[in-house]
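FORM 7B - TANDEM STRUCTURE REPORT

SECTION 1: FIRST PROTEIN
SEQUENCE AND TOKENS:
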Amino acid sequence: MKIGLTIESFDAARGGAEQWTSQYAAWLLRAGHEVHVVAGHFGDDVPGGIVRHQVERPRTRVDFARSAERTLDALRLDVTHDMGAGWQCDVFQPHGGSRTAAFEQNLLLLPRWLRPLKRRAARCLPRYHQFQQLLMGQYMAEDRVYIALSQMVKRDFERFHGVRRGQIRVVYNGVDTERFSPQWQGRYRQVVRDELAVRDDETLLLIVAHNFRLKGVPGLMAAVERLRGEGNRVKLAVVGGKRLPRGGSDGVLWIGPAADTVPYYAAADVYVQPTFYDPCSLVVLEAWASGLPVVTSCFNGAAELMTPGVEGDLLHDPGDLDELCAVLRPLLNPAARASMSAAARRLALRHTLDRNARELLAVYEEIAARRRRAAA
């Protein structure tokens, strides 16, 4: 098939959606498909065989969507797949989930009295009107297939954007279980823990995030401080973020951006992401694949894949410090983590990148079959 992928930045180093799209494009190439990528920026590590179509520096997201539409109209492709940036596509898969749902979840970070004021003020911003124009083009198509990364996102599509249930397919993220694997612990675990001054008898918690507030980093820091105050030997490594906060507890290790997160998964004991909104966190799947128990919230679509108490545990309120501490305390025991670690790896092996890609390819084939019937 001749397949077109649209994304603002085709650069695996930039984030989860970009990394996934690069891996997926490489998988399609290996499967024998012709892959075209429409993007505003291409990274240095573009898989060989990709046909590039670069959109020149659009001023706004709406400008990008229009330019991508013109580019795609000039190509004779069998299927077009947008990752959330444009509006010209057969398959729409916003890796950030619903923008409207994400905005509502961000309001939970504010005091209750301030939320309605923030909601009204946002409607006065030029950016709000651009987003509304973009959303109109993305969610008004009657014949488009919408890929939801989780049941949570499926509900958001229906609730906030009026997408018909029959247009939605739920396809969870998949992970490269060879790159992310417990096998790397032998190479990296002791080296990284020595570099971070983490003792063998200390529990190292890990979070990989860029938007610290949305992912629950402040609350996680407070939980670590409380647990340490109770006499627990625990530290937190925070990987990612453009600006690292100043100061903080001795138990918090600010790593900053990392080109390769594999060594940090290998060094950690538990992955924690008390997020306020995540469609289906790829880093959670990476942690499971690396053999780490995971603590995350019910606002993370990836949590739908887990059984609480088996591969980790679930938070009902990521802003509840008491709940977070209560969930973390049992995981400070190495014996409690051992069975969870094995279960986490088994769970990841059921949600590989290969499975993920084959499910998406089945959607493409469904679209192609529908067109053949229409042409007959």
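SECTION 2: SECOND PROTEIN
SEQUENCE AND TOKENS:
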Amino acid sequence: MFLDPKLPKDPKYELCQYEGIKLDFRGPKRNLSGEFVAFLGSTETFGKYVETPFPDRLQKLIGTVCVNLGCRNISVDGLLNEPGVTDIASRAKLTVLQVPCATGINNKYYHVHPRRNDRFLNAKEPLTALFPKVDFTEFNFTRHMLSELKNKSESKFARITEELTKRWIVRMKRLLGRIDSPVLLLWFSGRCPEEEFEHPEIRFQPSLVRRDMIDELQQHASAFFEFDTASGMRANNVDHALIDKVFARLSKRVFLDVPGQSAHDRAAKELAPVIVKLLQDKAKGPRKGGPLHT
């Protein structure tokens, strides 16, 4: 386990930045002058509480430089706000894009932080009108806010979900359109796309994303790979009594809800032949427009 439960602090991640980009990525910093595979994603791709994220494992397995552009708590808006990220992805032989959640995007109901997309900034008038008795100044995080609203009214929450999913599809198509390399969409989650998609909590990541939303993207990506992290979740393999002594409630929840090292190791092994085949097939046809496949 990367984070020894006896230690009360986050591990000291090796962070790096690439020229012209404000975001902090998981190091080590890679040389972009040669051929490489780019990995875009959120907390899971970054490898929070993990010693060796799956992009690092993959570099050894496939023999090609793997650039980890995973950024903690980012969603599609944060990636769109940093053109340098898609510039790097466009120079890659292949881009692996972890399917992001739909909660961390600006919409007609609320604003999120431009880089930390999990941060709730403020409610817009349609949301305060929908929930007039809710004090939105009490919320700092989008998932917390949405969970509370869902508990208050399932029907009103469904209206917010409809808005979020529509915006997510539009922005994902925009993001994919900016990447001038073959894109493999990666489902990195403990749930399948048909199940429990209506929950905003991190353990249901990518929150509020369904199979039909992935299908909407089939003309904009080269392939789709579905990886089940369920057996590699820390909640199944830790001493909960010991963790209770180390973490505050919120930090404990995050620690338990993100995939552990075993999930990353298994993901690398399963992804390796898929990525190798896509690299080999790159010159055989168009990079986009075909059916998504696993």
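SECTION 3: OBSERVATIONS ON SECOND PROTEIN
The beta strands are 15-16, 25-26, 36-41, 65-70, 94-98, 110-112, 120-123, 183-189, 223-228.
Residues 4-8 have pLDDT under 50 and may be disordered.

SECTION 4: SIGNATURE
Preparer initials: ____
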